[in-house]
Amino acid sequence: METISLWCNARLATLQGGTWGLVDGAAMLVGGDSLLWVGPLAELPAQWRARTTAEHDLGGALVTPGLIDCHTHLVYGGQRAREFELRLQGASYEEIARAGGGIRSTVAATRAASNGALLAAARKRATALMAEGVTTIEIKSGYGLSLADEQRCLALARQLGRELPLAVRTTYLGAHALPPEFDGRADDYITAVCAWMPQLHALGLVDAVDAFCENIGFSPAQTRRVFEAARALGLPVKLHAEQLSNQGGAALAAEFGALSCDHLEHLDTAGIGAMRAAGSVAVLLPGAYYFLRETKMPPIAELRAQGVPMALASDHNPGSSPGLSLLLMLNMACTLFRMTPLEALQGVTLHAARALGLADRGTLAAGQRADFVAWDLDHPNELAYWFGHNPCRRVVVGGTERIR
Ligand code: DI6
Ligand code: FE
Q1: Mutate to test the pocket of ligand 1, among 74, 79, 103 (most ligand atoms within 8 A of CB)
Q2: DSSP β-ladder status, 392-397 and 372-375
Q3: Distance from the Cα of residue 129 to its chain's centroid
């Protein structure tokens, strides 16, 4: 007989209906990896109660959906603390990148690292994110930049998802930077990125395709070629758009029905309109904004006014956001970007799910995956309020409690 577990004595923030969706004295019924029923315990139908085979007391804790980090670059070798020092002495992120540092230095370190070393480092990072209630994570490639190394990094990301109680979605970001062997031949490199895509996809390693459309990255015309290759394979696209300058990348991505456009500090009104029409999610990355000491904020008020869903992510990477706390991103989204605590939590739950094309998670409702977190908090607005503190008490992923 299938185990049906009752999780009771909770204060739920279901995030349904565009609000916190608070339910006190609540219970959730879990069968397999899904939520079968969610609501006040007093309203649990008798026939469900009769089928319950296990019971868990949540001790009155606040429970939210599992957190989703929808934009990370978790698999890479080395670190860039020296580059941080140089930036503090006045060098800019772009100058360092143009001088061959930046992403390229991480590409060299990644290529030189063994599978075991890459996996061990990525596992540590994933474990840190998980400790704060992250149950789904997106991992991009983009530090291999050869067929063999992109394949290695994507396969290691998949392996992490098999080893850990964590759902992993992979994104192919071959068009992240120009590798040294293609110096002066960016168009040829894009041809290679497009040629590798069906091979990586055939290996089951690609859930989505991304590119870095930027003056230090790839042009809109090159990005378009990558997106056309993705479309030919039926793969959804996302884009690092308008991070350091306005390239019209968001509108281009929207033309391809992008799941999301990410960063967006320099997004303009035309880009917002295109995203809205395409239903693309705006993924905001306050960690990179903070760490690069940017001063131009993404156009939050206009995104909000236009009803473009906003997600938040760690953007964990060694160059522009070496942080491993998604909860800190909630706090920064409010302090730096003036988002509301509700928007911040929606940004790491239902809107993050949408940015990954996942309809089965992000809220607490019957039919959703049983991914949820019990917090040592009274109200969900505290998730954005405390910082440098981890109130995560228990985590359930796909119906199974994660033992820490
Ligand atoms: N934008 C970013 O912020 C990261 N990648 C990107 O396209 C930074 C990656 C790095 O500096 O290593
Ligand atoms: Fe990124």
Answers
A1: 103
A2: antiparallel
A3: 11
Q: How far is the CA of 259 from the centre of ligand 2 (A)?
A: 15
Asked if 143 contacts 76 with a C-beta cutoff of 8 angstroms, the reply is yes
Q: Atom of ligand 1 at shortest distance to CA of 93?
A: 11
- In sequence order, the 6+-apart residues with CB closer than 8 A to the CB of 68 are 134, 135, 136, 137, 348, 349, 352, 353, 356, 358, 361, 362
pLDDT for the residue 97: 87
Enumerate the H helices of 299-403 as residue ranges: 300-306, 326-335, 341-347, 350-355, 382-385
Instruction: Give 89-136 pLDDT, tens digit per residue.
Output: 999 999 998 888 899 999 999 999 999 999 999 999 999 999 999 999
Task: Kindly identify the ligand whose nearest atom is closest to the C-alpha of 317.
Answer: 1
First-to-last alpha carbon distance for the chain, in angstroms, is 28
> How far is residue 153 from each of residues 147, 160, 194, 369, measured CA to CA in Å?
10, 11, 17, 27
Mean pLDDT for 305-309 is 98
- Alpha carbons 11 and 28: distance in angstroms, whole number: 11
Rounded CA-CA distance 267/248 in Å is: 8
Please choose from 93, 212, 320, 321 the residue to mutate so as to test ligand 1's pocket, defined by most ligand atoms within 8 A of CB: 320
Question: Any residues with Cβ below 6 Å from ligand 1, and which?
Answer: 102-103, 106, 176, 212, 240, 243, 288, 315, 317-320
Residue 104 alpha carbon to ligand 2 centre in Å: 15
Please tell me the distance from the alpha carbon of residue 26 to that of residue 17, in angstroms, as a whole number: 17
Which tens digit of pLDDT belongs to each residue from 45-102? 999 999 999 999 999 999 999 999 999 999 999 999 999 999 999 999 999 988 888 9
Q: Residue 175: is its pLDDT beyond 80?
A: yes
The minimum-distance atom of ligand 1 relative to the CA of 103 is 12
Task: Quote the ligand 2 centre to 16 CA distance (angstroms).
Answer: 29
In DSSP notation, 347-367 reads HTTHHHHHHTT--S-SS-STT
